[in-house]
TrEMBL record:
PANTHER family: CLASS I PEPTIDE CHAIN RELEASE FACTOR, PEPTIDE CHAIN RELEASE FACTOR 2. HAMAP family: Rel_fac_2. InterPro entries: PCRF, Pep_chain_release_fac_I, Pep_chain_release_fac_I_sf, PrfB. The modification N5-methylglutamine is found at residue 196. Pfam families: PCRF, RF-1. Methylated by PrmC. Methylation increases the termination efficiency of RF2. This is Peptide chain release factor 2. GO terms for molecular function: translation release factor activity, codon specific. Residues 189-205 form the Prokaryotic-type class I peptide chain release factors domain. Keywords: Coiled coil, Cytoplasm, Methylation, Protein biosynthesis.
Amino acid sequence: MRERQSLEDNINGINGLAQSLQDNVDLIEMGEEEGDQSIVSEAEEAIRGLKAEIAERQLETLLSGEADGNDTYLEVHAGAGGTESQDWANMLLRMYSRWADRRGMKVEVLEVHDGEEAGIKSATILVRGTNAYGWLKTESGVHRLVRISPYDSNARRHTSFASVWIYPVIDDTIEIDIPESDVRVDTYRASGAGGQHVNTTDSAVRITHIPSGIVVQCQKERSQHKNRATAWDMLRSRLYEEELKRREEAASATEASKTEIGWGHQIRSYVLQPYQLVKDLRTGVESTSPQDVLDGDLDAFMRASLSARVDGGSRSEVADID
């Protein structure tokens, strides 16, 4: 049903664009015949207005990967630097939540580990929506922030790092066999808001996949049983994502970018002082409005990253449309 709905939306969207184009072409011809320049100008403006929607739909044709249509998990981890990096990790979590809201996607918080003074040490959210994984998959990597620290009494400039990890939710048609001997399951007391029960019982669950070293955790529910089931789903998704990456030639570069949360591994820089600039170091895309980016205006960066993953022909076509 989900695939059918997606196909219907795409077909109806293309048919709607074609009809709008034809209607406006007919209006131009009528305006020229009647010598009414206002009709011609209005129709020409309407056609120009179709360009953005056409570009968006063409870009969505790039979201044809095996798991691109799936919902996705998004993890944020603070790097070294204490409160500074933990505050930056919290800003990133807000940025992606805002981006999802803009696109009409739903966000569920699965676990959050608060920092000692401010921000977060780590967090995991579930983003539900059409092509959620396809849009977000190129956001995995280290993100660097340069700003005047609000936590420094001397108002000095600080550089902070945080990492983002994206992996798809897998459905029941994909079987991931994980021997129980390969995992270690720990329970612990949840942190943060959630009421007396959450904070006084060992309801949170952490699962460690010993062969790969992958660790997932969930503290969303009051029930340890529900958290355990969610954590198992997250682990299967992580292992599935690893397999997807092994099949892609770009996997090595993406994986290398996650090896260390620090200098030399960042995919994007966010500079708030001494000037204002957000720059993607992989594609060269820039924005001089960091606040807009931090409020979720990420589409330009995602479009460029997606285009860079396809072959030269497709990339040039998208560039021409843009």
